[in-house]
Amino acid sequence: MMLGDKRRNDFPILYQTVNDEPLVYLDNAATTQKPRQVLEAMSYYDEHDHANVHRGVHTLGARATEAYEAARENVRQFIHAHSTKEVLFTRGTTTSLNWVAQSYGDVAVEAGDDILLSYAEHHANLVPWQQLAKRKQANLVYIDLDEEGRLDMTDFQTKLSSKTKIVALAHVTNVLGTIQPIKEIARLTHEVGGVIVVDGAQSVPHMAVDVQDLDVDFYAFSGHKMYGPTGIGVLYGKEKWLEQMSPVEFGGEMIEFVHLYNSTWADLPWKFEAGTPNMTGAIGLSAAIDYLTTIGMTTIMQHEQALMADVLPRLQAIEGVTVFGPTSPSEHAGVIAFNIDGIHPHDVATAMDMQGVAVRAGHHCAQPLMKWLDVQATNRASLGLYTTQADLNQFIQAVIATKEFFQNGTI
Ligand SMILES: Cc1ncc(COP(=O)(O)O)c(CN[C@@H]2CONC2=O)c1O
């Protein structure tokens, strides 16, 4: 039995019909669904242990604090960070990346410095750097993509220089699903004295991530992309950088002492966590990590690669369908962008929804990439650990039926 069939009954939401057809949920790159184990862990916390953290001297406060900090330790182990001081809870990837651009960027980047990005970045890993470049009169330098949408490493090394202060890249891109060689990029970036900021939103759900092995300086991801709740994410940062960085938000929790006209800050990681944190979200994220760890990231990656090896060639073989990104299935980490020639992606997605199949349509917060692809928008199917062969069979049938419907009016 494949993983998807084995684990599907952990996800109550998947057992519904849409337009009288079994739901086939293939929008996991937007957000994943939560297993009962995550839902139950959050409910248990709220029903038994909820209180505000780090301040109460009463029993519930102690239990809530213990649960919250145990969640942080669980994240540390999951990404193999050296210390919990390096694991900051945020609202999600977008907040994490903004914190780096504002706090690290403002102290490290000066006029004339280079910030290297790729055309394939999500807006969350592009717009914060645009704002930093404007604030500091720094240069945004875009690394070319090759003909199949991979990062052009030759162009990267050409543009990398002693002026490079920051390299900001996705580990896995959210439209093409390309896996960027982060470990090599980190090594090359450090050789010129730069730091590497990695957008891990689309990689953490699909593969094991070891931030020490990758030797990245910052790594950002979201709970809701990895079978956890929304509203909780993580910023990993090397302790040496976080110690130098000023807080981005100010108030309770993050202070050591508040005088009338100045204040001192709490130690890491709390220096960056102003106000009451999302305890339930952190506990839900920790339960998601336990769930993924029980299955094993290698097992998940193998499952999704097997499905991709089946579905990508079948989609590529449909006449009148354009599939974007690398030709090889092994270079797609769970994501396929495609169009049916001559049919607007929104019409395709609507027609597929009529057949119970949920795919994304639009620019996917990657408008520079749409320009590079020379399209306004694409459709996107994205797999999860619960995706089954039956899901993909229904997906392929829906693409074919949608094409025929728009060509001759029958579905
Ligand atoms: C590569 C990447 N980076 C950052 C983000 C932002 O994450 P948060 O919204 O959790 O801060 C996303 C979200 N993915 C978008 C959301 O919907 N569809 C997508 O592809 C993403 O895919």
Automatic annotation (TrEMBL):
One GO MF annotation is: transaminase activity
Task: Tell me the keywords, alphabetical order.
Answer: Aminotransferase, Pyridoxal phosphate, Transferase
Catalytic activity annotation: (sulfur carrier)-H + L-cysteine = (sulfur carrier)-SH + L-alanine
Q: What does the entry give for GO biological process? A: cysteine metabolic process
Name the EC number(s): 2.8.1.7
One Pfam entry name: Aminotran_5
Q: What does this protein do?
A: Catalyzes the removal of elemental sulfur and selenium atoms from L-cysteine, L-cystine, L-selenocysteine, and L-selenocystine to produce L-alanine.
Give the protein name, as stated in the record: Cysteine desulfurase
- Organism, by scientific name, is Vagococcus lutrae LBD1
